[in-house]
Automatic annotation (TrEMBL):
Pathway: Cofactor metabolism; pyridoxal 5'-phosphate salvage; pyridoxal 5'-phosphate from pyridoxamine 5'-phosphate: step 1/1; Cofactor metabolism; pyridoxal 5'-phosphate salvage; pyridoxal 5'-phosphate from pyridoxine 5'-phosphate: step 1/1. This is pyridoxal 5'-phosphate synthase. Homodimer. Gene3D superfamilies: Electron Transport, Fmn-binding Protein, Chain A (2.30.110.10). Residues 172-226 form the Pyridoxine 5'-phosphate oxidase dimerisation C-terminal domain. Keywords: Flavoprotein, FMN, Oxidoreductase, Pyridoxine biosynthesis. Its cofactor is FMN. It comes from the Eukaryota. The lineage of its organism: Eukaryota, Metazoa, Ecdysozoa, Arthropoda, Crustacea.
Amino acid sequence: MRKPYNEKHNTFTEDSLVAKEPIKQFQSWFDVACQTPNILEANAMCLSTASKTGKPSARYVLLKGFDKEGFRFFTNYSSRKGIELEENPFAALTFYWEPLLKSVRIEGAVKKLPAEASDEYFQSRPRSSQIGALVSSQSQAISSRQVLVDDEEKLTKEYADEKIPIPRPDKWGGYVVIPEVIEFWQGQSTRIHDRIRFRRPASSEEPDGVLTHQGDEGWIYERLAP
Ligand SMILES: Cc1cc2nc3c(=O)[nH]c(=O)nc-3n(C[C@H](O)[C@H](O)[C@H](O)COP(=O)(O)O)c2cc1C
């Protein structure tokens, strides 16, 4: 498994930040990932949650939008992740874009999106995906695949008339992760990788200009050892 990182990747220095805040920086890396032909789903991210007793669990979900307010994804509110987010509303997101040797880590508090935002996204999805959301009691044990196939067939018939909108089930909707920490990792063939972490400062914290630097929009940033 020990493969060399053959390609040379540019070192990621403080001077190569496109902005002194992490949302524009994320946009810049995400755009490159989206334009890289052998990255099929640049928006796939590992979502880590934890139960109220601190037991972690992780799975992939798709990023469906981001801005200063946070990073949005959609799922089933009654799923394992939904239950964990209900009892412990904090999460971590991890991207890894292998051909670029780039990774981004995001941590923060999580909130449900307003119902209107979930409705809007639900209605923008293909009807087959909408029916899929209705069919699946995500994360519940079921007796066979046939149960899902039968439910899908029944609902496809029920909603055969495309003029009838499919209502969003209450159990399905969006979340936003409100970032408190965003780290950018750039792998290097030398294994002396680059890590620049933006975070919200603690209430009385003043950046010292040596280890910690003042960024824009209330962020501070620092370089971490790899
Ligand atoms: C690339 C990829 C993208 C996925 N995107 C989503 C998604 O956006 N929403 C979702 O609910 N599940 C998505 N899944 C399925 C989840 O990984 C997971 O199986 C499901 O959400 C149930 O997780 P839970 O039981 O931990 O709640 C995706 C899986 C993969 C591999």
